[in-house]
Amino acid sequence: MGEEGFDLSERTPREVSTDELESCDIVATMGCSTLELDAETVDVRDWALDDPDGQEMEQVREIRDDIEQRVVDLFDEFNPDD
Description:
Elements: H1 18-22, E1 26-29, E2 43-46, H2 57-78
Parallel strand pairs: 1-2
Pfam family, one: LMWPc
Protein name: Arsenate reductase (Glutaredoxin)
Organism: Halorubrum californiense DSM 19288
C-alpha cells in the first residue's frame, strides 16, 4: 500500500461488529463469507477475492488493484455523474 501512498504501518486489523455492518447500505466481503445479517436493507456483495496473505508481491498488487477498481465501480454505480 506504500506504493500507492498509504502508510498502514501503524494500523492493525479490527473486528467489525454485526451492528456496524447492519447499519451499512452496502457491505463488500472478500469471499468465502459466512456473514449473516438480519438487516434486510443491507446489500451484501461477495467479491470473491484471492487472499493476499502469503502471495508473491505481484499477486498482492493485482489483488490491491482489483479492489481499487471494484471500489471505483461501486462509487460510479451510485454517483454516475461524478
